[in-house]
Write a structure and sequence with these properties.
16% helix, alpha+beta, single chain
Length: 91
């Protein structure tokens, strides 16, 4: 008879440890296969910022969407004609 083993932690998954709960704030550390030391955080917001930075450095996992920004990297002339498509027809 073969025994099944459930691996609840894979090497490419970030493991989050909550060490302290103070009201609505959580603090602790997270571990990842690619980091030798834990990364400590003081709030959930900080945890997400660190995780985002960490994943961006690894370029994994890649973003599935491009975030909207209201600041153009390069200013376009105000009178520039926009390219709009209506079911394959030019306006």
């Amino acid at each position: 008879m073969m025994k099944e083993k459930l691996n609840i932690s894979a090497s490419n998954i970030i493991n989050v440890c909550i060490d302290n709960i103070d009201g609505v704030e959580r603090s602790g550390r997270f571990y990842c296969y690619y980091s030798e030391e834990p990364i400590f955080f003081r709030s959930i917001h900080e945890l997400f910022r660190y995780m985002e930075r960490f994943m961006n450095e690894l370029n994994f996992p890649q973003s599935s969407t491009e975030l909207r920004t209201y600041e153009d990297k390069q200013q376009k002339p105000a009178n520039e004609k926009k390219n709009l498509f209506y079911r394959g027809q030019q306006p």
